[in-house]
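Most newcomers find our protein records easier to grasp once they have seen one. There is nothing in a record beyond a sequence line and a structure line. Getting from the letters to the tokens is the skill we practise here. An example says more than a description, so a record of this kind follows:
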Amino acid sequence: APAADVLGKMAAAMAREVESLIAQVDRAAHELVQEIGVSDPGRDKAQSIAEQSQRAASLLRQLASFSRRQARQAATIDLNDVVGRVEPTLANLAGDDIELTIALGQTAALTIGEDDLEQILTALVFSARESLTMGGSILLSTSGYDPDQKGAQRVVISATAFGYGVQAAKSSTA
């Protein structure tokens, strides 16, 4: 246990350092976007750096919260907004030989920690990707339903893998 505590403290210190570096890159990229003219061909690259730094910060938060396993702040959020925002990260996770398709259905507001939701989405895509050893596609979909017709909306998030080597239709649902 003492060795694990030392390792945990060391990892936390490293995470803070990485977070600081990401924040510096993010600030510099946003300043560059502001300085570059709209017609400048470098503007898109600067904007991309700013967006990637935001994704890196989000992934770092997910890793940190996962490693701490502590309660996170729940908030009422729109599931489809979060899926749309993390779609580029999920596409990168799926890989170059796997096509990620997002199908957003009508959903109710959801009360959950945003980092928790991002972890769920990441886990679903990762699990589906692992079943696609020779490429293919993943369909990540959201929908809502009222199981007892009394107005208590639920949400469904599913990731379905399609491709060579997938046994039957492998689907993960949260």
